[in-house]
């Protein structure tokens, strides 16, 4: 969350940040609550001071034999006690209201973030990998059709077991997913990341600490009758590992990577835009989470982006880099940079001139101290110095289903097979081509033989 003192001292800067985001936040109501709370705290201090003086007078009056005056002082002390309790009760109520209000105020965009209303005004900064494209079939088969033809992606059977928005991976589809995951984690180990395998259910305090609650409760899956949520991203448990801890300067930068399944109520829109495994309720992802000193967080953001890009470079997948504008910025981020991989199977209006579409596979985000204040993430610059809030960053390294989509579409061949990228072959037992296999069951009869 934003620092209460910062909001109090810089209301116009916060208002400008909210305006740039298009955020509907009643900042005046927050400031009014804060002013009332401060007035009550001051009133409480004055009343306690007066009661202490009265208490001292009671003893002096009794010693002086002034019993009537002592009784009056006792009565005044009791009145003060009741008034203090009333003031403190209201102050506590306001504190809770103010805390809840502050949890709903988004981060102020960094000054370098381009201003814009929505994703259409994000700024493309560069494209990579389009200079030497591999030769593609005249008509690239979309991954959802190719996956069915090869019998490596099965959405129909997942709909029977779980519902729409889920899928089975089978055979070489599983191998490809596992290969991508192990490959990504090996790349990030080279970059100095320590592996973490976190618990998948996480509590509300953790979800609040990273900013998923209260704003995005409707997007998450909650376990019935328990204060536990299914992990929406490994960012949540990994960031909260150090909740209310004090790290040392020598610990930073601290870089963790975690592979987890993730669960989100992302229904999206029906149709080609979301058909297949592009937008689903359960997906796997490798997440990179960084804890850094504040002064180095923007240098680290660009290093983090490069670490995510390395996966795409080694897979030889064409992609582009986008700076998100203020209107598309995430609730808790001060600055975000997207990586979008090229998937040539479906032509979209906003795709490149080569055809196909862009798929977001990573967002490198700098949250500055926004999460740190919510989760109590602090560090001590020197052992004798006071603690400070650190900065947190993260990026996907990468979202596996969409990378799989790009591999299946970009590396497919005229005969309907898929060439395995060279970087993945050691993780697939040396396999060079995904050929698929025949489907099973009566439903497969009459489907025809693969050529």
The N- to C-terminal Cα distance equals 58 Å
- Strand tally is 17
Determine Rg (CA atoms, Å). Answer: 28 Å
Helix-strand sequence: HHHHEHEHEHEEHEHEEEHEEEHEEEHEE
In DSSP terms (H or I, runs of 4 or more residues), the helix count works out at 12
As laid out across the biggest beta sheet, the strand order is 1-10-11-12-15-9-8-4
Function: Catalyzes the attachment of serine to tRNA(Ser). Is also able to aminoacylate tRNA(Sec) with serine, to form the misacylated tRNA L-seryl-tRNA(Sec), which will be further converted into selenocysteinyl-tRNA(Sec).
Domain Aminoacyl-transfer RNA synthetases class-II family profile: 138-421
Family: Belongs to the class-II aminoacyl-tRNA synthetase family. Type-1 seryl-tRNA synthetase subfamily.
Pfam families: Seryl_tRNA_N, tRNA-synt_2b
Describe this structure in words.
The chain starts with a helix and ends in a 17-residue tail after the last strand. Mean pLDDT is 95; it is low at 267-271. Helices cover 38% and strands 18% of the residues. It is built from twelve helices and 17 strands. It is elongated, with a radius of gyration of 28 Å. The strands form five sheets. The chain has an eight-stranded mixed beta sheet. It has a three-stranded mixed beta sheet with strand order 7-13-14, with no helix packed on it. Helix 5 (143-149) crosses helix 12 (400-410) and helix 7 packs across helix 12. The protein is of the alpha+beta class. Strand 13 (378-380) and strand 14 (388-389) form a beta hairpin.
